[in-house]
Amino acid sequence: MNPWSAAALIRAKREGRRLDAAQWQALAEGIADEAWSEGQVGAFAMAVAWRGLDAAECRDFTFALRDSGRRLDWCDLPGPVLDKHSTGGVGDCVSLALAPLLAACGGFVPMISGRGLGHTGGTLDKLESLPGYDVNPDPARLARVVREVGCAIVGQSADLVPADRRLYAVRDVTATVDVPELIVASILSKKLAGGAQALVLDIKTGSGAQTPAEADARALAARMQAVAAGSGLQLAAMLSDMGQVLGRTAGNALEVRGVLDLLAGRPRCLRLEALVLAQAARLLHMAGLAECEDAALLRARQALDSGAAAERFARMVAALGGPVDVFAHALPQAPVRRVVTVQGAGVVQAIDVRALGECVVDLGGGRRLPGSAIDPAVGLSEVAERGQRLEAGAALAIVHARTATDAERAAAQVLAAFTLGEAAPAAVPAWRWL
């Protein structure tokens, strides 16, 4: 038997043996060129979940994924190449606002994003709520949009980190989304291949996160920083709270509407706005576009308040085939709306955010199988916040559903996800830099 065959490599990891750099390269190539079946990719992912990887293996695996396809070169751009990544959250639409904000401040953001994983939403799925938006432009179009607009949020092309592209889809349906080594390799391989010079890594903690425990999140950040060291990528990591929905919405078109409200200066979620500005300030300072973080924060705030970030977002959407005037465009709306109310008064003490994410998936806003269609209109809006006092009959959330039956089922899921009581819960920081 070929010692580097799929079966041999899977067996080696299943038995806890380590692979060297050449074996990782062969593994990534086998996944990329589809010599490995989907079942073998899934078996490999589960072997890593079961046995783990040491630090050197994780680094070798990351670089093997990076080198499984072409790498983007932005050396001719007149400014720094910036990026961010979130480990996944419910209602996390930060990227949609952050990329144009950075572009308005002099950065260039070729953001390679993904689709939903498990109970968490995907940036590409959200953008596809906008008719015509091309998440897979050809290389020439991508380069033109980045140079002319300053930002482009797109998916992996067929030849950009193709090994991770296949592995990412299989993880979504094999209970291996939350495996730390696979998270590290997936994130950094794409960011390195995409040409990022400075990256903010947003690691979610709390009930709706892929890594709910803070200790696990910190360990993930340390592993990410170890792999990034020496790669030429500046990396800043933060922990952010996923003990409640990030904004007030969960669902693709609903979250896009929240971003449009934020960029246009309409009533918006202040928690979402603050996180966007914090990440923008850190990246602008890291890239030398501001002399200190306070100055960077002021610059980002001015770009948001002036409408400059909104203008960049509109130009990006139009340049990638979406609506010419996205701020006036009618987003998809679900035909059934069901207000979920509480019977008795109380303070929201805890929220099972993962359950809310699963609720959106059950409504059709996420996937149970790779390639399944997503309904962009369904989801939750006006979701109550932790610590919020509710009177009897007040709304916990509004369900947006395709049918009345779906709405009733989702309403029961929402009710079950909230814990109310008399006392206010302990305060949790919205984010902390590591």
Outline the structure in words.
It contains 16 helices and 12 strands. It has a 4-stranded mixed sheet with strand order 1-4-5-12, with helices on both faces. The termini are far apart. The model has no long low-confidence stretch (mean pLDDT 93). It is globular. Helix 10 (214-228) links the parallel strand 4 (198-205) and strand 5 (234-241). It is of the alpha/beta class and 434 residues long.
Count of DSSP-assigned helices: 16
Query: Kindly, what is the distance between the CA atoms of the first and last residues, rounded to a whole number of angstroms?
Result: 46 Å
Gyration radius from CA atoms, angstroms: 21 Å
- Secondary structural class: alpha/beta
Largest beta-sheet details: 4 strands, mixed
What percent of the residues sit in helical stretches (DSSP H or I)?
A: 40-55%
Integer average pLDDT: 93
